[in-house]
Write a structure and sequence with these properties.
There is one protein chain. By secondary structure, the protein is an alpha/beta fold. It has helices spanning 32-39, 47-59, 65-80, 95-105, 120-134, 152-171, 185-189, 194-209, 232-241, 259-262, 264-275, 290-309; strands spanning 17-22, 84-88, 109-114, 141-144, 175-181, 214-218, 246-250, 279-282. The strands form two sheets. The protein has a four-stranded parallel sheet with strand order 2-1-3-4, with helices on both faces. A four-stranded parallel sheet has the order 6-5-7-8, with helices on both faces. Strand 3, helix 5 (120-134) and strand 4 form a beta-alpha-beta unit. The longest helix has 20 residues, at 152-171.
Length: 310
């Protein structure tokens, strides 16, 4: 277990803090149009898309993502013995909310910790930009964790969760699908390392399990264009054509339950599998898994040690 922080870090300004950065969700369905607009980088969503997303949230009883993120924040704070603040890219608390709390607290040295192991650079860039825009110049000393999609603790957490949930099905010959959120291929062509890091993580999970798996990209966008694949439908059709009768889906690309697991997998993909006569089994997201929390704590402590020795 990572030891609680017990030393000076980036400056002599006091105990450092952690800014835990997540994607975010809506707290009430009336916020969906603005939420979708933020995700779409200022492009309003069509009424049809808003209605479709509203139905999805209603069918799952609302997204639990905010609750899970707060649980992760609180448990990480306890493990580290450091203040941990939460900021979301598209929901609440916003970066502005987090900066207000940080200024009030007196914390001036920050470790940026994205709960998105394959998009660390993007999340940290957005957080750094927000800090520079929302706080007085030079107010914060900032360092960040590095990409952590192949962190041993994260791989162990996924492998252990898959074994405990679906070991018997895999022993019977079920096809293991490892799913992550898709991205437009133009983003990858522009230099984003997401697909490379996702594939490396999936391969590491396969090695840890000693089990062959298929990497699948889910939740492709509504605007069309080319997105990373294969899709879930393609993977399920392939399994059927190869005589597979059972499928285990492990959404390793998501660290907490939300609409893209509870609807896209539990409702939409499950129905696809049923139509094909496939038995469907879904592994739960990690949430507050001890292996995950320990990994997060170790990432923070490593970042502090590196910064202190720089």
């Amino acid at each position: 277990m990572a030891a609680p922080y017990a030393g000076a870090a980036m400056s002599a300004s006091g105990v450092p803090a952690v800014l835990l950065i997540t994607h975010g969700t809506v707290s009430q369905l009336e916020d969906l149009p603005e939420f979708l607009k933020k995700i779409r980088r200022g492009r309003p969503a069509s009424p049809e898309l808003v209605a479709e997303m509203r139905e999805r949230y209603e069918r799952i009883g609302g997204s639990p993502l905010a609750l899970h993120s707060e649980e992760q924040r609180a448990e990480l704070e306890t493990r580290l013995g450091l203040p941990v603040y939460l900021a979301t890219r598209f929901g609440e608390p916003s970066f502005a909310d987090a900066v207000t709390l940080l200024l009030e607290s007196g914390s001036r040295d920050l470790v940026l910790l994205p709960l998105a192991p394959y998009s660390v650079e993007l999340y940290c860039q957005e957080a750094s930009r927000a800090l520079s825009e929302l706080a007085p110049s030079g107010c914060f000393g900032v360092c960040s964790v590095g990409p952590w999609g192949c962190a041993p603790g994260l791989i162990a957490a996924h492998a252990a969760r898959i074994r405990s949930h679906s070991g018997p099905a895999l022993e019977r010959g079920a096809r293991l699908l490892l799913t992550a959120h898709s991205l437009p291929t133009r983003v990858i062509a522009a230099g984003d390392k997401y697909a490379e890091e996702v594939a490396a993580s999936a391969a590491a999970i396969e090695r840890s399990l000693g089990q062959r798996a298929q990497l699948v990209y889910q939740s492709q966008g509504a605007d069309g264009g080319d997105w990373l694949g294969p899709t879930l439908r393609e993977a399920l059709n392939q399994a059927k054509s190869e005589g597979i009768t059972e499928v285990v889906c492990a959404p390793f690309g998501f660290l907490a339950e939300h609409v893209e697991t509870l609807y896209d997998l539990d409702i939409e993909a499950s129905a696809m599998a049923s139509e094909l006569g496939l038995r469907w089994e879904r592994v739960a997201a990690l949430g507050s898994d001890p292996f995950l929390l320990e990994t997060l704590a170790e990432l923070v402590m490593t970042a502090l040690r590196v910064e202190a020795g720089a």
